[in-house]
Amino acid sequence: MGKVYVLKSVQHLPVSIEEAWRFFSDPNNLFAMTPPALNLKLSRQLHFDKMYPGQIITYRVKPLLGIPLFWLTEITHVAHHRFFVDEQRKGPYSMWHHQHHFKPIEGGVEMIDLVHYSLPLGPLGTMAHSLLVKNELRKIFTYRYHKINELFGAWPDQNLQLEMS
User: Could you please report the per-residue DSSP string of 127-148?
Assistant: First the structure.
């Protein structure tokens, strides 16, 4: 496996932990937060509206040049109102481990996304990360930040907090 990269996004939501959890723990809502250009589609029906450990979700996505890719994720951990983890089992990354954390704070919820990921193809993957992948992930999480503000309302005086290394 090549280099492991880290992406961290922090966003405050002016809603209750119950409302935040209800929305983010429903896998169907992923589509509301994904840029339309990615053309994300479920490749088979979800059997439940709430995620659970062991749940498998399969997608088709077109991240580059309209080329369709298959992506299979497993929800590996769920702690009600606290966090859940999705891991890619098959897809474009050699590793994708995405933690979604939720913490009640005064006036709302702090939501932290922490993604550890690696690309295939060794030095070519490293070059692709520098030239393309890092910027595409930045665009996706920036879109998500703004879409979540549209859906829940913006936290006063907050800007996008996105760290990538």
Answer: HHIIIIIHHHHHHHHHHHHHHH
The answer to whether the beta carbons of residues 137 and 162 sit under 8 Å apart is no
> What are the structure tokens assigned to 77, written together?
């951990």
The CA radius of gyration of the chain, in Å to the nearest whole number, is 16
Structure tokens at 74: 């497993």
pLDDT in tens, 141-158: 999 999 999 999 999 988
Q: Looking at residue 53, what DSSP letter applies?
A: T
- What is the token pair recorded at 123? 């030095």
- Which amino acid, 9? S
Q: In what order do the strands lie in the sheet with 161-164?
A: 41-42, 56-64, 67-79, 83-90, 95-105, 108-118, 4-13, 161-164
Q: Is the model's pTM score more than 0.85?
A: yes
